[in-house]
């Protein structure tokens, strides 16, 4: 894990961390919770990208695919990250979840939108709305009515904030 931590700062470790998640899931998740607060955005991105159940070109994480609640606490920690690089990974991860557990992903997206209705920080709200729209692009393209409605709500909220 220490090597993955150092490698990801220079290249990427989302492929090499996966065997640790399979063989030592609990220990690895404890480390990833700590890394979700790391100063380095590459390390924070690894937390989301490394736990993606359907990461392209990588072995699937069957346990994470079957139970997205394993990684959702990590996504919660990263959803408002200051780096677009990290937020894109969160959106892609949530999009992976939507492929196997659409109801759960849609519930999460709706909750994340409700949370940003508070006018604290318009930049954070816009970032959150972007995550939701990006995460639901595939179910929306397939005509999933609820996904389309949530994406429209996220887009409309953004227009209302700018007026």
Overview of this structure, please?
The chain has 163 residues and is an all-alpha fold. It has a single domain, classed as ARM repeat domains (Serine Threonine Protein Phosphatase 5, Tetratricopeptide repeat), CATH 1.25.40. The chain has helices spanning 2-10, 18-23, 25-35, 41-50, 62-66, 72-78, 84-100, 102-115, 122-135, 137-141, 145-162. Helix 1 packs across helix 4 (41-50). The protein is globular and about 45 Å long. The chain starts with a helix and ends with a helix.
Low-confidence stretches: 159-163
Number of helices: 11
State the CATH class.
Answer: Mainly Alpha
Biggest sheet statistics = none
Determine the CATH superfamily. Answer: ARM repeat domains
β-sheet strand percentage: under 5%
Which whole number gives the mean pLDDT? 92
- Structural class computed from helices and strand pairing: mainly alpha
Indicate the CATH architecture.
Answer: Alpha Horseshoe
Cα Rg:
16 Å
């Amino acid at each position: 894990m220490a090597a993955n931590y150092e490698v990801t700062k220079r290249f990427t470790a989302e492929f090499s961390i996966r065997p640790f998640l399979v063989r030592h899931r609990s220990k690895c998740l404890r480390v990833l919770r700590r890394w979700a607060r790391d100063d380095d955005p590459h390390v924070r991105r690894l937390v989301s990208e490394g736990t993606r159940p359907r990461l392209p070109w990588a072995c699937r994480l069957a346990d994470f695919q079957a139970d997205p609640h394993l990684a959702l606490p990590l996504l919660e920690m990263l959803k408002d990250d200051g780096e677009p690089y990290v937020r894109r990974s969160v959106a892609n991860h949530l999009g992976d979840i939507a492929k196997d557990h659409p109801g759960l992903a849609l519930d999460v997206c709706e909750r994340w939108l409700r949370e940003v209705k508070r006018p604290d920080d318009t930049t954070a709200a816009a970032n959150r709305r972007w995550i939701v729209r990006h995460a639901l692009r595939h179910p929306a393209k397939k005509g999933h009515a609820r996904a389309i409605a949530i994406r429209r709500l996220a887009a409309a909220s953004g227009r209302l904030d700018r007026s």
